[in-house]
Amino acid sequence: MKVLVTELRQESNSFSAARSGLAYWRSGWLLEPDEVHATLRTVECAVGGMIEVLERSERRPEIVFGPAFCSQSGGPAEPEVLEAFLSRLLPAIEANLPLDAVFFSFHGALQSTEFDDVEGEVVRRVRAVVPPGCVLAASLDMHGFVPRGLAASLDVICGYHTYPHVDFAETGRRTARLGLATIAGAEPPVMAWAPVPMIVSASAYNTMGGPFRDLIGHGRQLVDTGALLDFSLFQMQPWLDVSDPNSAVIAIALDAEAAARGARDLAARLYGLRHAFAPRLSSVDAVIDRAEDPASVKPVILVDSADSPNAGATGDNMAVARRLLDRRSTLRAAVVVSDPSAVRRAFEVGVGGTAEFAIGGAADPRAVTIRAEGYVRSLHDGEYRQEFVGHGGKVSRLGRSAVLRFGQLDVLACHTIVAPGDPQLFRAFGIEPRLYDLVAVKANTSFRVGYAPFAGEIIEADTPGAAAPDIATLPFRKVPKTLFPWTDDASFEPVADVIRRTRDFT
Q1: What is the number of structural domains in the chain?
Q2: N or C: which end of the chain has fewer CB atoms below 10 A?
Q3: What is the pTM of this model?
Q4: What angle do CA 135, 151, 169 make, to 5 degrees?
């Protein structure tokens, strides 16, 4: 048995003002096939989970690798990214034929300037060169876009069960276990796909509590009782502008009827929760008012999800800072911004110096900016270590960075923002979030893992940006208005398609 493992993972934002070329992808990793095992084997990521299962398998498969490309979210990928990936993947496959399986670590919402469904294009290219019975299995982010074409071309699809995402490696393990079962089984598992006609704000739910956690719990109960082997709920991320979108449910079972029944059940329950996924937003001024109230518990975390680099926004919007300065607020507050020109200016002025700074709009001309006299507190090379699951210990490089003070407001200015939900983004540069009255975090939900243990209050703010939580404000051009929230279909009845590719071929 021979299995090839590969990765192409990024979440795209169709509304981002910047495109993602290879230089941008270097914010994550671009690994050659011969670098993947040594680099990712012990990392809490999907590839690491796949490797663990394969190496422990009694079948003792030979494990070979394609490239591993992983990037922070961004605008649609430039053609050079897919070209570079395929120019390494396809030769690796051809050099290792015949293969019994190819295991992919995908996001599921990667869009390029050429393809709305990049993962589907990659799988199509791979299907053209592997033997007919080769099993193709993929791990995907919970916010992946899973159209029928992608589902029908894969034998196994497994999505994250947690949001904030902390089960990267476990999702890789699930994918590998089911992939191996599909190779070896006389009666391989059957996968069913059920589309769900809705797109909802990614900041309006999580698996730490509430109805979505309960729905994930229901799916796990189906697995625990043996009704299903596996399930995945894909809440398509809302910043992807494609012509035929859908959220989706995947259910895997030993027989077709069980898989279809499970997919229909979960899809009906997911759509039934659609109104529970409405974002609850406060104005920036209302959040500042709350933080200024002596009765509020500090720190107040203002969630600036619209400008989240984790969601592909540019991270250069100073809407929160503008209101703090315009109000002459006495709150001790902290924000972060991506602005290379402000950093250059800070290095010219030097630590302890004062100068006028123009900050914001470095990449997105629509962004709110500030112009004010600031004091240079500190200068940095921009390196820090993350503490999040899946990235704990990883060295992130923001480029040269500076901490600027405007009255009681501290601004961390950097070339690029990596892992905006990690408290270490501030701590590594002398800003301890626990000691501030208000901290603006440019993230959707990932930040809750690090911030929830010490946050006084967490408030979602209605801020501008390419990842705005209010879907109605996004400039969709392709997405049809037949989906919720534009169309509310109380009579919706899920239909499940059964995918039986490997059995059909063998």
Answers
A1: 2
A2: C
A3: 0.92
A4: 65
